[in-house]
Amino acid sequence: MELKIIYEDNHLLCLEKPQGIPSQSDKTEDDDLQLLAINYLKKNNPKPYVGLIHRLDRPVGGVLLYAKTPFANTELSKQLQSHHTTKEYLTVVCGKPEKHTMILEDYIKKLKTINMSKITIKDDKQGKYAKLEFTVLDTVESEKEGTLSLLKVKLYTGRHHQIRVQLANVNLPIWGDNKYNKVFMKKKEFTFIALWSYKFGCLHPKSKKYLEFTSIPHSYPFTLFELDKLV
User: Fold this and answer.
1) Does residue 27 form part of some domain?
2) Mean pLDDT in each 10-residue stretch from start to end of the chain (231 residues)?
3) Looking at the domain assignment, is residue 208 inside a domain?
4) Residue 153 is part of which domain span?
5) Spatial contact of 211 and 5, defined as CB atoms under 8 Å apart
6) Rg of the chain's alpha carbons, rounded to an integer?
7) Is-contact 89 225, C-beta < 8 A?
8) Is residue 226 part of a domain?
């Protein structure tokens, strides 16, 4: 598979992750993007360093950043932990939000045995605070799908399946999500979830200059919207 490189310098390698490929090695032992990045960098360095800064769920595509040095990995990890990075997603949900812009704040508990998460209460010791903000970019009526809305989601925390769980909890399940969208849980045919890592912003680990990396999806149902005009 040919890598789609968004940005590269001596410290960073930013790639567009295709849907369906893991961000890093997992129990399936399928090819993963981190391994493909290592093989790409081996052309100029027999022992390249590739550190994963943030990860995307396997069905999710879009911007994914890797560090090419331990120094860059450490510096960017600090930014993530202190919430000094920008993470924005595009998603298509079933339905139309009541408000143009909404902030969702919940507590999310990870259910490890079934690889899912659920909304819980603040007093739950296993629950973790989760916050996101979304803006409605457009809404369309489809004969096949009904009402679909394109949202831009700004993520303030990075919890397991956070966007999927929080949107489903306010009756805006993501199109194609076979874990949290009841319609797609019943469907037998395979679909990729309509969730895309649209933007990642951070300070360059060396120069401290602010950088933003973007990627726009071109798959269905995103193609129902004029993305080039909306984002």
Assistant:
1) yes
2) 93 96 81 92 93 90 96 95 93 97 98 94 96 98 92 95 97 96 86 95 97 96 93 86
3) yes
4) 5-216
5) no
6) 18
7) no
8) no
Structural contact between residues 46 and 55, judged by C-beta atoms closer than 8 angstroms: no
Other beta carbons less than 10 A from residue 169's beta carbon: 15
Q: Is 29 helix (H, G, I), strand (E, B) or coil?
A: coil
Q: Are 85 and 79 in contact (CB under 8 A)?
A: yes
Q: Tell me the CA distances in angstroms from 224 to 90, 146, 191, one per residue in order.
A: 13, 12, 16
Token representation of residue 93: 């949900």
Backbone angles phi, psi at 55, to 5 degrees: -125, 160
Structure tokens at 7: 């940005």
State the pairing for strand pair 61-67/51-52: antiparallel
- Would you call 91 helix, strand, or coil by DSSP? strand
CB-based contact 163:89 (threshold 8 Å): yes
Number of structural domains (the chain) is 1
Residue 141 parent element (H or E): strand 128-142
CB atoms within 10 A of CB 116: 15
Residue 210 identity (one-letter amino acid): Y
Asked if residue 230 belongs to a domain, the reply is: no
CATH, residue 102: 3.30.2350.10
**Tokens 């979830």 identify what position?**
193
